[in-house]
Design a protein that fits this description.
Layout lengths: L2 H13 L2 H8 L3 H15 L4 E4 L2 E4 L1 H24 L8 E6 L4 H15 L3 E6 L2 H9 L5 E5 L7 E15 L1 H4 L7 H5 L2 E5 L2 H13 L5 E6 L2 H9 L5 E4 L5 H5 L4 E3 L7 E9 L6 H20 L5 E3 L6
Parallel strand pairs: 3-4, 3-5, 7-8
Antiparallel strand pairs: 1-2, 5-11, 6-9, 6-10, 6-11, 6-12
Helix pairs in contact: 1-2, 1-3, 1-4, 4-12
């Protein structure tokens, strides 16, 4: 098994079609098929289901695809770091919603501080504002939730993430999951994110329920602290929940049995392309960390999007 085989396999997975992958890779289709067969033989698993619909990842293929993407980015990173002199002093602005700060923003900053290859500028905005800022060239690359395609911005869906009922133990009454009707009886602290609030309100409306909203909180950190203090419950993704509060039992993050709410995390950049190697390094690091989180399984309710299904 080598990087070339993994690169070929990843391209087939991304395009969902052997013929298009062969064209993109500038290789004859029989040779590409043989490379894939060799990789599957060596690993002892079928990576792709092939049929009239094209090529789809199997469960083992989904795992190998995530690892292949990570390895290819690491190879690219090695090449860039070995030629890091042009990057010294480069400044890259990355944007994300406040709920992504703990699981993505803080590790990203630590990584580039340790690497000392560039200066990272982290901008925290709602996803709708992030799209405008990317289009205007004020942010180089962003993580945005439920980002709709728009002129001037390339949107790459990477993960889906469940929204959970986040509450203090005294509101849970020993339950390991809740219903929307049960949540409607509790004081609700609504996220100040327009996208998140709309999604929650729509879920309640579909069941002819009305949440008992007692406050709207603009910042995720404050919202989580108020929930842990027992002021009210909230509907949030796992990425926005304080792990220390969970571990200490001050917070619970429970599935919502009858009102599944899911958001999509997207990596967004300008259609004009990223301004140099430094910005591409940051984008690749974002993709690598998101992909690794889905593969490890420590990000509750997080699932990698199959690129061949898009």
């Amino acid at each position: 098994m080598d990087i070339k085989q993994l690169r070929y396999f990843a391209k087939i997975a991304e395009l969902g079609n052997m013929t298009r992958a062969a064209q993109a890779l500038h290789i004859a289709q029989p040779a590409l098929s043989q490379q894939l067969a060799n990789l599957e033989d060596e690993l002892g698993v079928r990576l792709l289901e092939r049929g009239v619909w094209g090529a789809r990842l199997t469960p083992p293929g989904d795992y190998v695809y995530a690892q292949a993407r990570s390895l290819m980015r690491q190879v690219a990173h090695i090449k860039t770091v070995l030629a890091r002199e042009p990057l010294l002093g480069a400044r890259v602005t990355v944007g994300m919603p406040s709920s992504m700060g703990r699981l993505l923003g803080e590790p990203l900053v630590r990584h580039f501080v340790e690497e000392r290859t560039l200066l990272l500028d982290v901008a925290v905005y709602p996803s709708s504002d992030l799209m405008d800022l990317v289009a205007a060239g004020r942010i180089d690359v962003a993580i945005a939730t439920d980002a709709a395609p728009r002129k001037g911005v390339l949107v790459q869906p990477v993960l889906t993430e469940d929204l959970l009922a986040v509450l203090a133990p005294r509101f849970a009454h020993g339950r390991d999951e809740v219903t929307l009707a049960q949540l409607a009886e509790l004081p609700m602290l609504m996220s100040g994110s327009h996208t998140m609030a709309r999604r929650v309100e729509e879920a309640f409306h579909r069941q002819q329920l009305r949440p008992r909203v007692v406050a709207e909180i603009g910042g995720t950190d404050m919202l989580v602290r108020l929930v842990a203090a027992g002021v009210g419950c909230a509907v949030l993704p796992f990425s926005g929940v304080d792990p220390d509060a969970l571990a200490a039992g001050r917070l619970l993050a429970l599935p919502i049995r009858d009102g599944a709410m899911v958001r999509t995390l997207n990596v967004c950049e300008s259609e004009a392309g990223l301004p140099g190697d430094a910005a591409r390094m940051v984008r690749d690091q974002l993709l690598d960390r998101l992909t690794a989180a889905a593969v490890r399984g420590d990000w509750r309710g997080c699932r990698l999007i199959d690129p061949s299904a898009s």
